[in-house]
Amino acid sequence: MMDEFERQSLYNCRHEFYDNVDSDKFVQKLHNHGVLSESQRQKIQRCKSNREKMANVLQTVSFGNHDCYQNIVSIMKEEYPMIANKMELELLKERTSNSRDVNESLIEIINEQLLPIVYGKGKSNEEDFSSKRPHSSVSRLSELIRQLQLRKIKEQQEVVRQLKEEINEIKSPKKKNQSLHEELDEINLAEKIYQLRKELQDQHERVRLLQLSVHSKESTVLDLKTENAIIQNEIQELRKQRPLGKLQVNLLFDD
């Protein structure tokens, strides 16, 4: 099947086919060379105008096998060499344009993604790549990937070194004793904190009970004061009534 570049090249040359090529002869040659089947030839011949036939031909051959484009170029060279040359130039242009686009995308990836990873942001190490020199971009990409691999290896080596140091420290008797003492100190400290908290809670409870006792005594004192006031009032009343009582008694005995 034709690739996308061949189909685009054929499309770019369509007006040359419409204006200059005899569709009937062209269809017959395509059929003779096995580019068109008999059913395809008959279907195209049913079209009325030369332009309609040629448009149908180009549409049909666009889905031909991978040799179809070169077969058409060979057929065109027999009677229409200028169109054949244009077909070859258009195909070359399409493939070159695609290569240039790929190379430009590659350069963009290198400059905007890989270089900041390798050298860090803000450190420009861009080189003047040209889209006309794709091999330089590929070489540069290969070099950057190699540097990334080396950096990764160094990072892994550093991680291994740190792990070895930690393992050696754990295995060290001095480290073990130090760790044991630290754990004991932490246990003793935790025990002391627990005792202090317990004593503090006991003190809070004693204070609470004392406050309740004081409150109860204050209430009792208040009740006593109230009773004392009542008694004092009663005494005052009695003192007021005592002389009158004596007078009444004397009067009774006077008779």
From TrEMBL:
InterPro entries: CARD (IPR001315), DEATH-like_dom_sf (IPR011029). This is CARD domain-containing protein. Residues 138-166 form a coiled coil. Keywords: Coiled coil. GO terms for biological process: regulation of apoptotic process. Residues 10-89 form the CARD domain.
